[in-house]
Write a structure and sequence with these properties.
With 79 residues, the protein is an alpha+beta fold. It has a single domain, classed as 3-Layer(aba) Sandwich (Glutaredoxin), CATH 3.40.30.10. 39% of the residues lie in helices and 22% in strands. It is built from three helices and four strands. A four-stranded mixed β-sheet has the order 2-1-3-4, with helices on both faces. Strand 1, helix 1 and strand 2 form a beta-alpha-beta unit. The longest helix has 12 residues. It starts with a strand and ends with a helix. The model has no long low-confidence stretch (mean pLDDT 95).
Length: 79
């Protein structure tokens, strides 16, 4: 896959866990940033998305807020 996938998460977020499980099931490599402990990445996430809630996911330059399986499947070309 040619699109870089980044997910901003917190340890207690059930939608973050669901998203990561979806990625695992579909063999999607991703970079994860825990915004509960990484203030710099938290600020980066807020600046990029305008959101304080997680997960915030980027597939290439496209942003998805929350676990939206259909949108992620579309962006990742998963059937």
């Amino acid at each position: 896959m040619d699109k870089k996938v980044v997910i901003y998460t917190t340890p207690t977020c059930m939608y973050c866990k669901a998203t990561k499980e979806f990625f695992k099931e579909n063999n999607v490599a991703y970079d994860e940033f825990d915004v509960a402990t990484d203030a710099e990445k938290r600020e980066e996430m807020i600046q990029k998305s305008g959101q304080m809630g997680v997960p915030v996911i980027f597939v290439g330059d496209k942003m998805v807020v929350g676990f939206n399986k259909d949108k992620l499947s579309e962006l990742l070309s998963i059937q």
